[in-house]
Amino acid sequence: MININGINVFYNEIKVLSDIRLKVKPGKITGIIGPNGAGKSTLIKAILNVIPHTGETLINGEESRKQLKNIAYVEQKSDIDPTFPIKVKECVSLGTYTSLKLFQKLGINEWSRVSKALDKVNLLDYENRQIGELSGGQFQRVLLARCLVQEADFIFLDEPFVGIDSISERIIIDILKDLKNQGKTILIVHHDLSKVNEYFDDIIILNRELISYGPIKDSFNPQNLKAAYGDNIFIGD
Question: Which of 31, 143, 145, 232 is the most exposed place for a label (fewest CB within 10 A)?
């Protein structure tokens, strides 16, 4: 379980997250939605303890920094340099390092995990290509493959469906649903409200403070959406 206790984040003395408290249920795909500037990505980074904040997050009863081997994180593609000279299989292999000892080289087992992960995302034939040669959707699938080889129980993805093709999006969501069925806990920052019902079990609705958290049927409603996005949001039938 992920237990978020009173998370507050300030940027240049401006409070961007205010007293976020919730317990994320395990074995679910939970979406994080809200308008631009709502603090969605900031919440993930605070949970993972990669930005300054107050409050704490406990994962399986421990501080998140003590659970790093059990956490996989895919940041926004815009935060990653696609021109970095690394092959697809080498990029995916980075996910194996959490299970290796210091200075230990990758062996047959690790490379086998890499191949299986690339096959899972339909990119095994691309293993020797440079990541800069990939489309946006292919690159996102490589990042997911890196998560797969890590074999973590908690997976965090920041806007994984932005700027990718429909085939890649379908491959990714199908894999994530399969991981959920294996008991993994998945949090996804997301912006496309039309896909919420299809993709998520639970939803976190933010606008610098917590608007709502719970199952889609309970939390994803016009009242909560207007509280987060304002009265001008269009909500279809």
Answer: 232
What kind of fold does domain 2-83+153-229 have according to CATH?
Rossmann fold (3.40.50)
Residue 117 and residue 175 in contact, taking contact as beta carbons nearer than 8 Å: no
The answer for residues whose C-beta is within 8 angstroms of residue 177's C-beta and 6 or more apart is: 29
Helix (H, G, I), strand (E, B) or coil at 224: helix
- Reduce the DSSP state of residue 33 to 3 states and report it: strand
What's the pLDDT at 107? 81
| Beta pairing class for 185-189 and 202-206 | unpaired
Q: How high is the mean pLDDT of the chain?
A: 92
Q: Which residue has the tokens 């996005």?
A: 229
Q: State the pTM of this model.
A: 0.92
What is the rounded CA–CA span in Å between residue 49 and residue 61? 15
- What is the residue extent of each domain of the chain? 2-83+153-229
Two tokens, residue 88: 């697809």
Distance CA 75, CA 224 (A): 27
Measured distance CA(131)–CA(142) in Å, rounded: 9
Tens digits of residue pLDDT in 23-38: 999 999 999 999 999 9
As a whole number of angstroms, the distance between CA 179 and CA 160 comes to 16
Q: Would you give the distance in Å from CA 166 to the centre of its chain?
A: 18
Main-chain phi, psi angles of 79, to 5 degrees: -90, 0
The pLDDT of residue 237 is 47
Nearest to 191 by CA among 203, 208, 182: 203
Tell me the per-residue pLDDT of 94-138, one tens digit each, with 9 for 90 and over: 988 876 666 667 888 889 999 999 999 999 999 999 999 999 999
